[in-house]
Amino acid sequence: xxxxxxxxxxxxxxGGEWVEASSGNRxxxxxxxxxxxxxxxxxxxxxxVRAAIDAxxxxxxxxxxxxxxxxxxxxxxxxxLIRERRDMIALxxxxxxxxxxxxxxxxxxxxxxxxxxxxxxxxxxxxxxxPPMNPANRVLVLRQPVGVTAAITxxxxxxxxxxxxxxxxxxxxxxxxVKPASxxxxxxxxxxRAIEDAGTxxxxxxxxxxxxxGMVAQELFSDRRVRKISFTGSTEVGKDLIRASxxxxxxxxxxxxxxxxxxxxxxxxxxxxxxxxxxxxxxxxGQTCVCANRTYVQSGVYDAVVAKLAAKVTKMVVGHGIRDDxxxxxxxxxxAVDKADEHVRDAVAKGARLVVGGERLDSGEHxxxxxxxxxxxxxxxxxxxxxxxxxxxxxxxxxxxxTEEEAIRVANDTVxxxxxxxxxxxYARLLRVAEKLEYGIVGANSGIISAANAPFGGVKESGYxxxxxxxxIDEYVDVKYVLVGGVGT
Length: 489
Ligand code: NAP
Hints:
Mean pLDDT: 98
Bound molecules: NADP nicotinamide-adenine-dinucleotide phosphate
Distance between the termini: 75 Å
CATH superfamily of the largest domain: Aldehyde Dehydrogenase, Chain A, domain 1
Largest sheet: 7 strands, mixed
Oligomer: single chain
Shape: globular
């Protein structure tokens, strides 16, 4: 069995130097599978954030003046280095975040894929020459980097949520300050080391680790040189950032919470549907923004789906992600366990049937960690917490439906709009339902939807802006129109 990482000491990256916080303060990073120390990072203060903004501003002109081909080469090299270091980064990720090692290695590959994808896009930031209304004029449309940008990222995908922002920022010619979640700063530092080792000039990317996220945000929002902030995290914090952006009309991209519905119609391939549901619901112990939070199954196959799902969930192995046989790692912390348990207790109290799971695991090999058994509830109704709030844990709640109209209505009955899924073998229904779901991302006959080449993002209170895909770079580009008069015909 592998041994979890310990004693990992990282620093801030400011202007190409790996440095301590000016206060000298550090904070600990804890293994959610054991409660033990993994390592520590500097606890940056205002002075450090300002120094990082200074460094990003100083590096901007040189970086955006480089030919796109040159920036693309650096991104490709960074992707190669991340892949070469995959096992080491995955070990650190599992140790600080908890996900099973195989999932962590998969995330590292996924993280590298954003650099490869945006290396290609760097070379395709085309402008336009538009036919003029007045034949003596010329009309040019330029696409230019927005300038200094900042990325605030969550702990659930500590590598990929960062590269999904840094890839397009670097490709477009922007410089950046990154503030990773305080639970998972070590993975972030390893990704930045790969970017630096790929030959990125000093100051193009800067790392600020801090326990004072509000202070970091305040510094970033109040500095006019920071032109854009990209945030992935909770809807609650996202709304605060929208308010904070008003003063300087700062550009924002927001990837916020989800509350994904998973619909299984009578005509679905049931094995494929249950496998898709498991991939969507239980990956990363249910701590993904796109994971199924509400499962709606049509009457004719309801009992069969519950039975198939329960049979598979019973076989899941809960433990430290470092163990080869583990499929469900710990949740990020005790509060996450409390929330999952609250959703289960609330559902049972209101009449749901607990089919599998519903237990905290805190003794024996699980002592010190934040573990919860993978859980299936059936007979879930709209007034239960699990039907209205993001659970962010390994709990699948199942509700019966009768008609297609009813399924679409309940699926759309939420303030969130990130991802939705459904299974059917009827092609006409497939197109109808895909069009009617009010979500930024729809998985039809698949529970896995994320990929670097596709635009990822939500509608409604799940945020705005898109990451990945051909449009991902638009978030880091300003469009400028130039009218040249008096040219003649
Ligand atoms: P969170 O509490 O909002 O934290 C996300 C990031 O924001 C962290 O770096 C955090 O720093 C920072 N932060 C916290 N308070 C802040 C403030 N007042 N101002 C500025 N930054 C602040 O979210 P989380 O619990 O880590 O992540 C889970 C949420 O993210 C879920 O709702 C999930 O659905 C969402 N998510 C969305 C996507 C997507 O693409 N739509 C992807 C992944 C996750 P600290 O860690 O230091 O508190």
